[in-house]
Write a structure and sequence with these properties.
With 91 residues, this protein is mainly alpha-helical. The protein has one domain. The protein contains two helices and no strands. It has helices at residues 4-49, 56-87. The longest helix is centred in the N-terminal third of the chain and has 46 residues, at 4-49.
Length: 91
């Protein structure tokens, strides 16, 4: 049977790995959100200068839709990530 100290060290390794995974997941989600938002802004800007089938109102609607879709999960992920950062004791 492993000693109590060994089990505590194993738990700290698991918690450290969980924190790394959580921060990578948050970073990936923020990067995807920024990519889609930047892409919609670029396409909206291009539609101002080039005659496309869509109108400026439709480009604005795309930006609002993308922001609406991603803002809820983004807030949830960032809130969970920073809550876990606050709960960690200072070393």
């Amino acid at each position: 049977m492993p000693s109590k100290k060994g089990r505590i060290q194993d738990l700290s390794v698991i918690l450290k790995d969980e924190s790394i995974i959580r921060s990578i997941f948050a970073l990936i989600f923020v990067a995807v959100f920024a990519f889609f938002l930047l892409g919609s802004l670029i396409l909206g800007g291009i539609s101002l200068f080039m005659p496309l089938e869509g109108k400026v109102g439709e480009a604005k609607e795309i930006i609002v839709t993308i922001s609406g879709i991603f803002s809820g999960p983004l807030g949830l992920i960032l809130g969970y990530y920073f809550r876990s950062q606050v709960e960690k004791p200072s070393t």
